[in-house]
Design goal:
Number of helices: 8
Order of helices and strands: HHHHHHHH
Largest sheet: none
Number of strands: 0
Structural class: mainly alpha
Helix content: over 70%
Radius of gyration: 16 Å
Distance between the termini: 37 Å
Strand content: under 5%
Length: 195
């Protein structure tokens, strides 16, 4: 299982790192379900934030493993509906970049947040991610199919993050590796903010 997860993560990161045009999902091409599915997967900023939500929830344990990611998905869907309907939201890209920074810091600190605080925390950032998905829906897309795609893509990334967190917890140095990973994610978030 650990080898399979490692191969999946390395494959995703390899695609994102070696094909620069795919590193940001904010280009909007194609339509329908597949466009929605690939938007969170191929957007490096979305991918890092959503993996981080899964890892953070695994660090917290208990019911947070499913409650925190579910909160993100539901609030993100609301943000997506706002975006699809062209309801303006301030500084969407900056909000997404801050989500990468803040979630990376939360993982690095391994501070066990209360589930309610974590749900509010990820829910706030989910609005920005959802709004970006909604506003960048290709013009040929059917909103329902597109929304189903980005919800399933997000849920899949959350599950991958949870699995990374659970697998890391089984190894002696796993918690430390997650903290370093969180610091790296926070560094990328900082770069996205200033870049």
């Amino acid at each position: 299982m650990a080898k399979l997860m490692r191969k999946i993560v390395v494959s995703i990161l390899g695609v994102v790192l070696f094909i620069p045009s795919m590193s940001y999902a904010h280009e909007g091409s194609g339509g329908g379900f597949m466009a929605g599915l690939t938007h969170p997967v191929l957007g490096f900023d979305h991918l890092l934030a959503m993996l981080s939500v899964g890892i953070l929830s695994a660090q917290m344990g208990g019911q947070a493993i499913w409650r925190v990611p579910l909160t993100f998905v539901l609030v993100m869907l609301g943000g997506g509906i706002l975006g699809i309907n062209s309801v303006p939201l301030f500084s969407v890209e900056l909000g997404i970049a801050f989500s990468v920074l803040a979630l990376g810091i939360a993982i690095a600190l391994e501070n066990k947040l209360s589930p309610l605080l974590a749900m509010v925390f990820v829910g706030f950032f989910a609005i920005f991610h959802g709004h970006a998905h909604g506003t960048e829906m290709p013009s040929l897309s059917k909103p329902v199919f597109y929304a189903c795609g980005f919800v399933l893509g997000t849920a899949g990334i959350h599950i991958a993050g949870v699995l990374i967190g659970i697998i890391a917890d089984r190894y002696k140095e796993g918690k430390q590796v997650l903290r370093y990973l969180g610091a790296g994610i926070a560094g990328i978030g900082f770069h996205l903010i200033i870049g």
